[in-house]
Amino acid sequence: MTSIISIKNLTKTYSNGFHALLNLSLEIEEGEILALLGPNGAGKTTLISSVCGLLSVPKNTITIGGFDVSEDYRKSRSLIGLVPQEITIEPFETVMNAVSFSRGLFGKPKNSAYIEQLLTDLSLYNKRNQKNMTLSGGMKRRVMIAKALSHEPKILFLDEPTAGVDVELRKDMWDVIARLKESGVTVILTTHYIEEAEEIADRIGVINKGELLLVEGKNELIQRMGSKNLLIELQEPAKKIPTSLSRFNLTLSNDGMQLNYIYDVRAQKTGIVDLLSELKKASFKLRDLQTSQSTLEEIFVNLVKE
After folding, report:
1. What are 206's strand-pairing partners?
2. Does 303 map to a domain?
């Protein structure tokens, strides 16, 4: 696929000497959903601000749709819709006026049909004549997304889009993002909800201390860095794991009724057959077997720790 955002060797150092970004390079493909994960202070917001032209960057560092951010700011910025984490909308304006005004800021001609369809897609049409200050927090966040999409950008940046939003509304927002992808919009989001990235992202980028640790397809990442657990339920409690099983990566539950075996699915041999054979020799009576795959959250935590 074609890269719509190209970042090459981006380093950002603040006046106090803090290195917010260190030699970061990233290619973002047109039409994909990329989730950027990282702890507080990792550099996510600095990266977004740099791409959106809110922070100065050297020439030939960032290009948006072929336009250099430092030289063609207006052209590159016109391709981007930005939804910051903080809710910043005009409290006394109606939803319709606020979104229409944002479209005008980018020099776009009036298009009532597009704005009405946008509000419909975001479940805001019935509230189009309400003042923003009367809306719930979740609806205000939708208004911000509508404002960001008002000028028909090809790229949408979402900084913590579901922060403070209840579970039901969060899933609605996921549906909105999925529809944007279907329409060809490239979506880049930062999130602290790992399940959000796992649910909707095509690729995952992990940032820590200003460095991009990896960028990889979600499924490939889970397969490559994940492990599987085999949970063995016993018919009778075990007091300890016998020495004959010490070569296996086994843990015993506090009540002695479960054994947990962690294995690598990429290995030529998982060791499960040998384990079950040794359990039989040790007179363990099994009740049930269950397997589970590592979650994206577990992989993320381990990456940041390392």
Report:
1. 37, 214
2. no
User: Concatenated DSSP letters for 170-218?
Assistant: HHHHHHHHHHHHHTT-EEEEE-S-HHHHHHH-SEEEEEETTEEEEEEEH
Q: Give the separation between CA 113 and CA 7, rounded to whole angstroms.
A: 36
Q: How many helices (H) and strands (E) does the chain have?
A: 10, 14
48 phi, psi to nearest 5 deg: -60, -45
Looking at residue 305, its amino acid is: K
How far is it, in rounded angstroms, from Cα 110 to Cα 108?
7
CA distance 196 to 294: 16
- Tens of pLDDT along 62-73? 999 999 999 999
Q: Which region among 42-46, 101-105, 127-131 has the lowest average model confidence (pLDDT)?
A: 42-46
Tokens encoding 112: 């009532």
Q: For 141-200, how does the pLDDT look when each residue is reduced to its tens digit (9 = 90+)?
A: 889 999 999 999 999 999 887 776 677 777 777 888 888 899 999 999 988 777 778 788
Do residues 148 and 142 lie in contact, with contact meaning Cβ atoms separated by under 8 Å?
no
Same domain, 134 and 186: yes
State pLDDT tens for residues 121-135.
888 999 999 999 999
How far is the C-alpha of 36 from the C-alpha of 39, rounded, in Å?
Answer: 10
**Token code pair at residue 87:** 């809710």
Instruction: Please state the pTM of the whole predicted model.
Output: 0.75
Nearest CA to 296 among 84, 35, 93, 77?
A: 35
Quick one: 158 and 268 in the same domain? no
The whole-angstrom separation of Cα 12 and Cα 207 is 14
Write the CATH number for 144: 3.40.50.300
